From TrEMBL:
Keywords: Signal. Residues 1-30 form the signal peptide. This is F5/8 type C domain-containing protein. It comes from the Bacteria. Pfam families: F5_F8_type_C (PF00754). Residues 548-683 form the F5/8 type C domain.
Length: 683
């Protein structure tokens, strides 16, 4: 049985209000002074926030929203991986003692925190006591405890964060091999549950503030709605997806386990849930794309997981450009390797072969085009450079801006391509010194393209977070301090009997994001923080441009086409017209010599500023695009001597022309030139 989201929300809110009426205690002075940022009632007991002052509202003098963006978070991942890997909940109607209690399997000393051991080394031992003592968790180096309790997110919002991307995440293989679980390992089932619980968390916060729509935690499904939320001073929450086998698109022995219908149905379902960005692959190669490797012992463990899931280990090849995937390394991961069948071992890898041999598959291209049709944003982090390069080719061919790199898993050499398209980048939540250094490497590009910067905390993402710099570290955080906008004052954050200090505890949970930003300011200066404070506007700029994108008219579709030659074949035609028939299954092929050309008559003088060439294996390393008004006098609009095949897009200052000619001067193979499709656009 299904119900409308509106009906479900009203029912949940009504139930919450009845339940919370007895449990919630009015916050001292909140009702009396009417401060909009204070709840009408808050559970008692509960976490302290540690912030005073009104959160900023509105836009700057140029009409731009202000604030930080966490472009990569996992609020509900305690519900992933079988439901028992990450202990604690982001909220509970029963209160903090229920939300932040430890998992039973961690008693008595945390020695069964197996995932901490496999991924981080050590023995995983810790004091398992949660509320109210929190002796050992949450911590910057603990991978299996809740970091996104709602009150901690509230502190980050009060400290200036205005966009949070909640990536719904899971991994069926991790779920299947982990000892403890209380539910199915089906990835899409987990994604649906996490989406539902994110809406319930919105209802929960609304109830604290007096009813539907009144809370600060606002799920948004469009950029205009997000702007309205931020202008009210609240937090815009965007739903994304990061999973290894979306829509069931795994591959077994290189055979896809999904088809185009599965992809269409999956994208439609996610869009209906409110999802607006997603990864097509994560950790394991799947039927859509190859992944960017993990390194060290974690990489070995994930490679084992890949074999258990797909029947194949990662395969590498030499890279063809400056971009490369992470080195796999040969570090042992005994806890994972013992799960391999007898006689099967993780392969060794050539240090000179740094790239995943698997790129974007045919089904992957179909999924990318499906996301463009739905105006969704694609996350290229975790894609192999071969897959990411092809995805960027597809976006450039359509001038599509919806590309994101949210947590430092993209090769930095892609950064300008992302910005040129209108995309957005964020850096992983590294320690302040590393964060400042990495931000500096791309600062000139942000200045060139006039964009802000983001961070991806990856909280609850089993990744590890900034360690403490020490009580005696230079330029340490001095409490209390002012928020980046200057309107609020933040002191050390306390939950129960535990008080956290970034200097000595590191970034243990999401409530310490403002402290970490202050640490960045003290280490790297105000300029880095200013770039981050422009992050919300830049993220929404990318999102808005993605929503507004419409496919440009293809001026070459059905154009009269002629060529210097066409390869003869008794079974099929390689005539010039095959390159402009709109069918990617047909192609024009020239004779096997360097100097060849394909000419298109658009039928009338048109504005021309972009030409896309979809090469078959027989491509040109050197060629030029020429334009003419009369078919006699030609001028070169664009040229290259570094063609590498695939999908090429030539962008140049738009001019008026009737005729377009592609002139090949040097072949990349022993064959001639062959083009599946040529498209021509005004811009």
């Amino acid at each position: 049985m299904t119900t409308s989201r509106t009906g479900r929300h009203l029912g949940v809110v009504t139930l919450l209000l009845l339940v919370l009426a007895a449990a919630l205690t009015p916050t001292a002075g909140a009702a009396a002074d009417g401060a909009w940022w204070d709840p009408v009632a808050r559970p008692a007991p509960d976490s302290e926030i540690g912030v005073t002052g009104e959160p900023f509202k509105g836009t700057d003098s140029a009409g731009r929203v202000r604030g930080f963006v966490d472009a990569h978070n996992h609020i509900m991942s305690n519900e992933a991986f079988g439901g028992r890997l990450i202990c604690g909940k982001a909220f509970s109607e029963k209160g903090i003692a229920d939300a932040l209690k430890d998992c039973p399997e961690h008693y008595p000393d945390g020695s069964l925190a197996v995932f901490d051991f496999i991924t981080g080394g050590g023995d995983g031992r810790h004091d398992p006591d949660g509320w109210p003592t929190f002796a050992d968790w949450p911590a910057h180096d603990s991978l299996t405890h809740q970091q996104n309790y709602y009150a901690w997110i509230e502190r980050a919002w009060r400290g200036g964060q205005r966009v949070l991307v909640n990536d719904l995440v899971t991994n069926g293989v991790i779920c299947s091999v982990y000892f403890f679980k209380d539910r199915s390992c089906d990835e899409m089932t987990s994604i649906r549950l996490q989406a539902q619980l994110t809406y319930r968390m919105q209802d929960y916060v609304d109830a604290l503030y007096g009813g539907p729509g009144k809370g600060w935690f606002r799920i948004v499904t469009g950029s205009a709605q997000a702007r309205e939320v931020i202008e009210q001073g609240k937090l815009a929450v965007v739903l994304g997806v990061e999973t290894s086998e979306p829509f069931g698109c795994k591959q077994v022995l290189d055979v896809a386990q999904c088809d185009r219908a599965d992809i269409d149905a999956g994208l439609d379902e996610l869009y209906a849930l409110g999802v607006r960005s997603m990864f097509l692959c994560h950790k394991f190669d799947n039927a859509l794309c190859g992944v960017r490797f993990d390194s060290g012992a974690l990489g070995t463990a994930i490679n084992v997981g890949q074999f258990l899931s797909t029947g194949t280990f990662w395969r590498t090849e030499p890279c063809t450009g400056p971009q490369h995937d992470n080195p796999i390394g040969l570090a042992s991961a005994p806890g994972a390797e013992q799960r391999l069948p007898a006689g099967v071992e993780v392969p060794s890898y050539d240090a000179d072969a740094r790239c995943n041999a698997r790129g974007l598959t045919e089904l992957g291209e179909y999924a990318v085009r499906g996301m463009m049709q739905r105006n969704m944003m694609l996350e290229i982090d975790h894609m192999s450079v071969k897959a990411a390069g092809r995805a960027l080719d597809l976006f450039e061919a359509e001038a599509y801006p919806g590309v994101l790199s949210s947590h430092s898993w993209m090769d930095l050499n892609w950064t300008e391509r992302v910005y040129r398209l209108g995309g957005f980048t964020a850096q992983y939540m590294n320690g302040s010194e590393q964060f400042v250094a990495e931000a500096g490497r791309t600062e000139h590009l942000r200045d060139t393209y006039g964009v802000g910067y983001g961070y991806g905390t990856d909280m609850n993402g089993v990744g590890g977070w900034p360690a403490p710099r020490g009580a005696d570290a230079p330029n340490k955080v001095i409490y209390p301090f002012r928020s980046a906008d200057g309107g609020s004052v933040l002191d050390r954050q306390t939950t129960g009997r535990r008080t956290w200090d970034l200097n000595t505890d590191g970034a243990a949970h999401h409530g310490l994001v403002p402290d970490w930003i202050e640490d960045i300011r003290r280490v790297g200066g105000q300029d880095v923080v200013d770039d981050l404070f422009r992050g919300a506007e830049s993220y929404l700029g990318t999102w808005g441009a993605t929503e507004r994108h419409r496919p440009a008219e293809n001026l070459a579709r059905g154009a009269h086409a002629t060529a210097s030659s066409a390869e003869w074949n008794p079974f099929t035609s390689y005539a010039p017209a095959r390159a402009v028939d709109g069918d990617r299954g047909t192609r024009w092929a020239a004779d096997w010599s360097d100097d060849q050309w394909l000419r298109l008559d658009l039928g009338a003088t048109r504005r021309v500023g972009r030409v896309t060439l979809d090469w078959e294996r027989a491509y040109a390393t050197a060629y030029r695009v020429e334009l003419s008004s009369d078919g006699t006098n030609w001028r070169t609009a664009w040229s290259t001597t570094a063609g590498d095949g695939g999908l090429d897009t030539a962008v140049f200052t738009p001019v008026d022309a009737r005729h377009v000619r592609v002139v090949g001067t040097q072949r990349g193979t022993r064959w001639g030139y062959s083009l599946y499709e040529v498209t021509v656009h005004a811009r």
